[in-house]
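Hey L., structure's done. Input below.
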Amino acid sequence: MATLLVVAVLAAMFWPSGAPPGMGGQGGPPGEGDGAGGGMGFGPMAVEVTQAIETIAAEPVQLVGSVAPHRQSVIASEVDSAVAEIAVDEGHRVRAGALLVQLNTTTAELNLAAALASREEASARLVRFESELVRMTDLMGRNAISQRELDQATADRDEQAQSVVRFTADAARLEELISKASITAPYAGQVSAVHLEVGEWASRGGQVVTLVDLSEVEVTVPVPERYVAAADQARRAGVRVPVTFDAVPGRVFEGEVKAIIPEANPGSRTFPVLVAVENPENLIQGGMVARVLTQVGDLVPTVLVPKDALVLRGGFTFVMRVQPMPAEGDAAAPADSAGSGGTGPPMGMVVEVPVQVGPGIGSWQAIVGAIANGDSIVVRGNENLRTGMTVIIAGEIAVEPPPPPDPGRPMAGRVGEASAQ
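Output:
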């Protein structure tokens, strides 16, 4: 930033006589006589640049696939009962454990109350029978009763103890049934379908709600068999690949190859490859069209630009290329321009170049577009630039060179490298 301020001061000192572009030339209001200036009423903008470079990498191949949720479950009823309440609707997002459907539990609750009462009664009788058994044992020790009478007291005590166990089991079974009548979400997700209405009968095993988990999605792309080995290398190396979606313009997501289905489509001879994509904002929905840009082709020259050189605007990605100023007297030259041959800082003219973004390689991004090796690229100060604007080149930025080409990794990229400004 300090460099940009210094250059701006120098530009004011060395600017030729007359008002700078954007100030009206004759003292008029800002905007008159701007020409190809900075467009902000203060003359050309100061920027920092670097050069696009070329490396050898596998040729980018775009694969079109479809999206499926990370998890999808048809939640079923575990008990037979009528539907008393539906707590969700299609499209609702729910947390893990949230109530989805409540089944009627009136009969079960009445049976539970009866079982608990019977258990209490049986427990009270058991206390009396145990006391009686203690007394009979004492009498038997004094030969006051027969063995038969003691055995009968023991049998009565054991039978009553079994009654307590039976009523306890009945109560536990009914409590579990009542608990299962509250059908809850097994994980956080979004409701995609509700299969019952209030008052309908829910049978054990019958469908109740369909729940999908879109916190992560799986993109299935058909990969030609000649690229399967490269895709498997990417899977084992944990390579990240850029993924775009037609329904989410202007966003580039990262995906990781998770699995390769080991059975080809007999018609197309392609293998389904699963690419996992994080979806924390739930922007990606099941069934969307996805485009995965992978580098699995033949090794070819590939142009790289720094990641900070990428500008997202209106759903498209641009790189700002700086061209030499037109020769003096050229009709395209802006009025009052000093060009790049004056005594002040070097200047240039901006051209917006639309590009397609490939995988990241270190601090660089592979691109496809009208950018060539050695082109001067704006890295800082590029956010508000437009084609035809004049800029002051404040300096060149040194960017760490990309790692050398690795023929053993045809799907270029590393975890967390694909990004855009």
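The longest helix spans residues 106-141. The first strand starts at residue 45 and ends at 51.

-- N.
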